[in-house]
């Protein structure tokens, strides 16, 4: 897999590996807890200013099933959502004082079929 | 008259232990016994007098749209597994999720679709209406009458799309009577258009009432949520995030927030800014259909453990289910309009992620508070007048437990 992301976002390739394998909110949250804050900040600083461009690119596809490069880009954007929690609010990877590690289940006992 | 919507918390109610009023001393002083948050005896009393008596919210009717759709919900404090299923006749029914042969759960949770429920132990099979369809090798049960061996039903009723059950085999009051004066507020919620839902669940090391408390007042917001939602709620005119209005109806209550109408995400918060802006565009695209209004309570508290709130992009509902005297399970559903674009999906992901983290801020506090209370250091704790919703809830529970004890004494 040489080209992970759409060509316009090739400069973000160095970060793609952090997130493209993480399919769930739970796995991204755990990755955030495990990542040094500096790494999250570096990712955020490189990616957040590109978010509007990334999403404009993805919105042009306008459907649930994105081509594989775009699907990876969306996964990177979801990683940015998680990293942004750390950078924009807590100035730390983990919530100060929170148990480590912890998981907040998506669905779990509240699950419903869709 | 009981259970009338009122601006004052003194109104009467009847939860099957006779007509009673919220405990006057707690309403007056806000002083609550600390052991009400950790004693095993209180936990057992709440189980018997509240969770085995009250109507309990389970699920939205539209979450079970078709015949055979089912959910399994555990009411752990009562040790009960509830199976709710839509029948071929389109009727919603609830049953104990227990095979009549030897007690095995017949449905695997938490949700699914079934033609019938076949017990995984010996394949006894039950129809969607609960009746027993088949006993393998039935000639070995010559004295059993299959007509008497349907799944044990649980009382179920629906109000405004909210499906409730009651574990009392003969509830002392209807769902409508239970909701009483709070019913019109429940009726004004509009979850149906919000067809995209994120659901979260977390086990919290704190009593279930500690779990409810932060949802019942804004007093903690400036402190606990200093890094997250403080700026959305706290203003110079309202530094303690007080409700602008509170109302009470029997055991239920509602609080209306003042909010911070001028709030916008800080410009340097690029991701939050993008998400909030996109969510606003989503609202514009669907012409605001079904959104909470200025008249929507920030907290609508249906006794004992169900909360409905306006949320980012729509609504959210949450419940705090007691597990042990010192732990509970939080479940939450975030309702959004269906996203069309990737941007809208991302904005929803940001909103749920933000809600998860601000929820964790509460959970961390409660778990530490729990240790403090359970240490026995103090005999009581205090709810101020701005914390009138939790004060009222504590007063209701005190009266219910006193009344239930009095009933037991008079029956003895």
From TrEMBL, chain A:
Protein name (Swiss-Prot/TrEMBL): Uncharacterized protein
Source organism (scientific name): Sphingobium cupriresistens
Lineage: Bacteria, Pseudomonadati, Pseudomonadota, Alphaproteobacteria, Sphingomonadales
TrEMBL record, chain B:
Occurrences of domain Rieske (ranges): 56-152
The entry's keywords: 2Fe-2S, Dioxygenase, Iron, Iron-sulfur, Metal-binding, Oxidoreductase
Coiled coil: none
Record bears the keyword Transcription regulation: no
One Gene Ontology term of the molecular function aspect: dioxygenase activity
Gene3D superfamilies the record matches: Naphthalene 1,2-dioxygenase Alpha Subunit, Chain A, domain 1 (3.90.380.10), Rieske [2Fe-2S] iron-sulphur domain (2.102.10.10)
A Pfam family this chain is assigned to: Ring_hydroxyl_A
Cofactors that this protein relies on: Fe cation
Protein name: Aromatic ring-hydroxylating dioxygenase subunit alpha
């Amino acid at each position: 897999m040489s080209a992970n992301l759409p060509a316009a976002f090739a400069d973000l390739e160095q970060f793609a590996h952090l997130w493209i394998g993480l399919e769930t909110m739970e796995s991204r949250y755990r990755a955030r807890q495990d990542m040094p804050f500096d790494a999250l900040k570096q990712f955020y600083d490189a990616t957040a200013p590109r978010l509007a461009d990334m999403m404009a690119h993805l919105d042009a596809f306008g459907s649930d099933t994105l081509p594989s490069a775009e699907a990876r880009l969306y996964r990177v954007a979801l990683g940015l959502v998680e990293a942004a929690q750390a950078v924009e609010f807590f100035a730390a990877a983990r919530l100060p004082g929170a148990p480590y590690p912890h998981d907040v289940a998506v669905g779990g006992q509240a699950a419903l079929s869709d | 008259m009981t259970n009338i919507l009122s601006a004052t918390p003194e109104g009467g109610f009847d939860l099957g232990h006779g007509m009673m009023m919220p405990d006057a001393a707690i309403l007056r002083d806000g002083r609550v016994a600390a052991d009400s948050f950790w004693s095993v005896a209180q936990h057992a009393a709440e189980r018997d007098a509240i969770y085995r008596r009250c109507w309990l919210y389970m699920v939205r009717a539209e979450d079970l749209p078709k015949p055979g759709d089912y959910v399994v919900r555990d009411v752990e404090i009562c040790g009960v597994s509830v199976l709710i299923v839509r029948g071929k006749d389109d009727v919603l029914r609830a049953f104990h999720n227990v095979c009549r042969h030897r007690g095995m759960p017949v449905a695997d949770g938490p949700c699914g679709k079934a033609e019938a429920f076949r017990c995984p132990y010996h394949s006894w099979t039950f129809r969607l209406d609960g009746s027993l369809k088949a006993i393998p090798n039935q000639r070995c049960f010559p004295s059993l009458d299959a007509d008497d061996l349907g799944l044990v039903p649980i009382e179920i009723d629906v109000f405004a799309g909210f499906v409730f059950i009651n574990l009392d085999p003969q509830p002392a009051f209807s769902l409508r009577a239970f909701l009483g004066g709070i019913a019109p507020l429940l009726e004004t919620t509009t979850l149906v258009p919000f067809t995209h839902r994120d659901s979260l669940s977390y086990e919290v090391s704190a009593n279930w009432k500690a779990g409810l408390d932060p949802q019942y007042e804004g007093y903690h917001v400036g402190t606990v949520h200093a890094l997250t939602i403080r700026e959305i709620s706290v203003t110079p005119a309202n530094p303690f995030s007080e409700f602008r209005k509170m109302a009470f109806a029997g055991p239920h209550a509602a609080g209306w927030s003042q909010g911070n109408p001028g709030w916008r995400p800080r410009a340097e918060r690029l991701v939050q800014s993008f998400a909030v802006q996109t969510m606003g565009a989503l609202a514009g695209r669907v012409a605001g259909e079904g959104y909470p209004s200025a008249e929507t309570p920030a907290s609508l508290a249906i006794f004992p453990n169900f909360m409905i709130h306006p949320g980012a992009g729509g609504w959210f509902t949450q419940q705090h289910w007691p597990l042990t005297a010192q732990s509970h399970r939080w479940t939450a559903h975030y309702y959004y309009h269906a996203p069309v674009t990737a941007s809208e999906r991302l904005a929803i992901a940001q909103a749920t992620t933000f809600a998860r983290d601000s929820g964790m801020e509460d959970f961390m506090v409660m778990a530490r508070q729990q240790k403090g209370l359970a240490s026995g250091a103090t005999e009581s704790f205090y709810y101020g007048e701005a914390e009138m919703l939790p004060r009222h809830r504590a007063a209701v529970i005190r009266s219910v437990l006193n009344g239930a004890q009095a009933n037991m004494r008079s029956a003895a």
